[in-house]
Design brief:
This protein has nine helices and seven strands. By secondary structure, the chain is α/β, with parallel strands linked by helices.
Length: 265
Amino acid sequence: MAIQDIYIVENNNEGERLENKVLPKQLVDDFFPSYMPRNSIIVDLGCGPGNITSAIEEKFQCKVIGLDNSAERINHARTKFTSQNIDFLHGNVYSLPFDDEKIDLVFSRFLLEHLREPLKAIAEMFRIIKPGGTILIQEIDYQYQGNYPEIGWPQEDVSSLLTLLRKSTGFDGNIGRKLYSYLFQAGFKDIDVSISGYNVFAGSISNNDLYQKTLEFQAIESNLKQMDLLQGEIASMKEKVLKYFLKEDSLSFSLLFHVKATKPF
């Protein structure tokens, strides 16, 4: 039976939100190797609108393949990025359309947190990577849990929502801490882990950040209603969270795990 994952923040504006979440060139400069041979093949899994895929190709001038399970975003990426070195594929991370041990580097960002079976996806990544090849993963942890002062933050409601999402959609807001173990189990070696702050809001957040968070909660609310899982509860929680983000004395943060590993010879 096919695994049915649910992208809980899917909405008509999700392509725009994803494009605004990252500076692609800076990410590639900071996280990727400084050099890749031009005959390399790099795969960007969960590529979304393709901005990072394009930045990878621009830096290394090699073959780069972006894969996503959203046909709409793949079509958008194909229209926007037309380099001959780039391909965009509509596909399933549990059954990647690549032969064994043909890929030099696999990259994914904010993909595994949405999967019901992340270990199965990582096993597929291991399968397609060449011996000596590299996997790069970025995932969030401690999502919506780092806040002070605690007064005004609806932690009980947020924790209940995260538990509901985990059970109903597979979404895991604490997947970052699990990546080392997952990659070790898959057979990767030389696993390197670093952690940085993510969505660090000190004091009242900017209008743009407030807009992005509003889009995120609206998408979650809409999708949960379609699944008949929540009605008015998330609307009330959303208002409390957004109000908290506007407090002058508040600090909120999540953690971003950066994980690199190698497939042994």
